[in-house]
Write a structure and sequence with these properties.
Butyryl-CoA Dehydrogenase, subunit A, domain 3; 7 helices; 70% helix
């Protein structure tokens, strides 16, 4: 039976995935590097306790979601206190994205900034990252029913903001 992978193996195999998840959850490129470092620092400490090496990818995503949750809550507090900078969501779009697609993406993330953090993370994992509902529940550390409620609540808020609901 093989033991857990080394930190280097985990980073080489899943580093790009963690960056992608962090980018989509946070919506701001300037915060991604710090979050990814935090994820792999936690992984370095906890990797020996990983029971199923096959679950490494989802385990890293769960760490990223917890770290993103903390950062998003702090960001919300800074925003409430008018200490947060104005975000530039244009950086999130792919280089091939049209101006309309860039504007839509910026609008979605502006709305997500107002969605409760747990709902935002679940919705983003499901609809932006494309995770299955069971994976969303596992990454968020909640039941399937709770994950569905969070995604639905976020979707309702987004639809209201876009005038679709």
């Amino acid at each position: 039976m093989a033991g857990p992978p080394s930190l280097e193996q985990a980073f080489r195999s899943h580093g790009h995935y963690v960056v992608a998840v962090a980018t989509r959850l946070l919506g701001r490129n300037e915060e991604v590097d710090d979050l990814v470092q935090d994820v792999f620092l936690t992984a370095m400490r906890d990797l020996p306790s990983l029971r199923d090496p096959a679950s490494l990818r989802s385990w890293l995503a769960a760490i990223a979601a917890r770290k993103a949750h903390d950062r998003l809550r702090r960001r919300r507090l800074r925003s409430f206190l008018s200490l947060d900078s104005v975000p530039n969501y244009d950086q999130l779009a792919d280089d091939a994205a049209s101006p309309e697609q860039r504007a839509l993406l910026a609008r979605v993330y502006t709305v997500l900034d107002k969605v409760p953090v747990k709902e935002r993370i679940a919705w983003t994992l499901r609809h932006v990252e494309g995770q299955q509902l069971e994976e969303v529940a596992g990454i968020c550390g909640c039941s399937l029913a709770t994950a569905k409620r969070r995604i639905s609540a976020a979707q309702e808020r987004i639809e209201r903001a876009f005038g679709d609901g």
